[in-house]
What does this fold into?
Amino acid sequence: MSTQNHWSKNKMIEKVISFFYSGASVNLGIGIPTLVAELLPKELNIFIQSENGVLGVAGRPKKGEESPTLINAGKETISIRKGASFFDSALSFGMIRGGHIDFCVLGGMEVDTNGSLANWMVPGEKITGMGGAMDLVNGAKCVIVVMTHFTKKGSPKLVKKCSLPLTGVGVVNIVVTDLGIFKPENGKFVIVELASGVSVNELSIPSELIKI
Amino acid sequence: MDYSKVFTDAKSAVADIKSNSTLMSGGFGLCGIPENCIDALSEMEIRNLTVISNNIGNSGRGLVKLLISKKIKKAICTYVGGNPDLEKQILSNEIEVELIPQGTFSERIRAAGLGIRGFYTPTGFGTSVADGKEIKIFDKACLLELPLGADFAIIKAEKGDSYGNLWFKETARAFSPLMAMAAKITIVEVEELVEVGEIKPEDVHLPGIFVQRIFLGKNYKNDIEFRKIEE
It folds into this structure.
């Protein structure tokens, strides 16, 4: 399969950022989503929350300014913006569970037409644990999943029904892949946008599950 | 004053932790972990610990020291990614692991410390986390979650006074104040041990009432798990 039309990671993150509005609070999952903090335009007044206890993450620190006690949930060194605050994990998840976080951006292994997400375990093969993902998908106002369209083995990650252990049921609002943007709605994936040059056939989603 | 919370070192502060104890350990990844207590425990002849911690260390560091010396019978945690030693013990059934969503984990610990007998949360509904739990419908379906306490908590703070008032640096706070509240005996190691009164009352992140033992730590590695800098 040719991948020349696929969006790059940075392009996928730009698409994610396009949903944000000034003043929004955003939680970022481990992996690709942390790129949001680095690519966020300065003029967009966003407060990035990291569930280990900081609101106001601002990308990577300058060389020599990294601190072992200033990290994100992926345990990477970070810097903070003006107006940032620190707190304990119970308050952090109170912020999340209490509906105060506008967007959460996280990775996925499978998303289904019902908006259910699987992203924390492959039985017998891989265990990462759910971390804060189950709290985030149930608490954030808008849940955005960003992931490659296909698994390494080549199967589509957008499916009729998740087969892996679930992270949440009916929780995903928007999916951004390297092929396009989709919304799970009423048992179908609504196509919001396709990467230029990508055809519906290339999505490998059965046509009865697609709404254009 | 004939009673003091101040201990001389980690070895004396953790000396009465016995096999089969339930132990909470603060920190997030390798950030804010009680390095001295973990090192002291790793040299003790104890087994069958139940360890409650967000991560069980990583890359041979932190709680991995207790893991590879086979001191841990059960780990209660939220995330095991990037911890090959733990993943290996899980897949070969050498260790029992209970994975809990992180927000539920935090709140269960908080509940144990603050006298809350249970709470309902939508987190985990429709997933394996809900197995065997009471479900109640509010605006959404919610699970009943119960408190999670421990015999001992080992935590690290940047600064503490002899009464046990604590101040944490940046994101090193995480679960530590919650665990301090939830354990019967809380043992704190600090980078800076000061006299009472030196931490301003409005800067106290955790009041000393929750702390039973405190000592001045030493030789901190303060490892960075993933050093990322601006390119």
